[in-house]
Amino acid sequence: MEIEVVAKALKELGHVTRLKIFKSVVRAGKQGIAVGIVQTELSIPGSTLSHHISSLIAAGLISQRREGRTLYCVADYEQLNAVIGFMLDECCVDETTA
Questions:
Q1: Over the stretch 62-92, which tens digit does the pLDDT of each residue have?
Q2: Where is each HTH arsR-type domain found (predicted)?
């Protein structure tokens, strides 16, 4: 995974509101969560929520799907695992044994 992609994902998750949104979406599982439920849970205006969701989509962390009149946010678990894996792959690589 390219470092720029990881940096973008971590930057977007570095904002408290976006991290709360992403946590709600991840907790919902593979079926996702309705945008209206996220808005109610976090008590934020729809326009603010939309702005933050757009940032998370741009970072590849979530996607959206529509079912009738309901818009769902779904976590991209592959992207999440890739970001976490990028960091874990570097764990202790420069450590020397004494």
A1: 999 999 999 999 999 999 999 999 989 888 8
A2: 1-95
Full DSSP string of 56-87: HHHTTSEEEEEETTEEEEEE-HHHHHHHHHHH
Asked if pLDDT for residue 96 goes beyond 90, the answer is no
Q: How many angstroms separate the first and last alpha carbons of the chain? A: 32
Domains of the chain: 3-89 (1.10.10.10)
User: Which DSSP letter does residue 49 get?
Assistant: H
pTM here? 0.90
Query: Measured in whole angstroms, how far is the alpha carbon of residue 44 from the centre of its chain?
Result: 17
Among candidate residues 66, 58, 52, 65, the one with its CA nearest the CA of residue 23: 52
CB-based contact 39:53 (threshold 8 Å): no
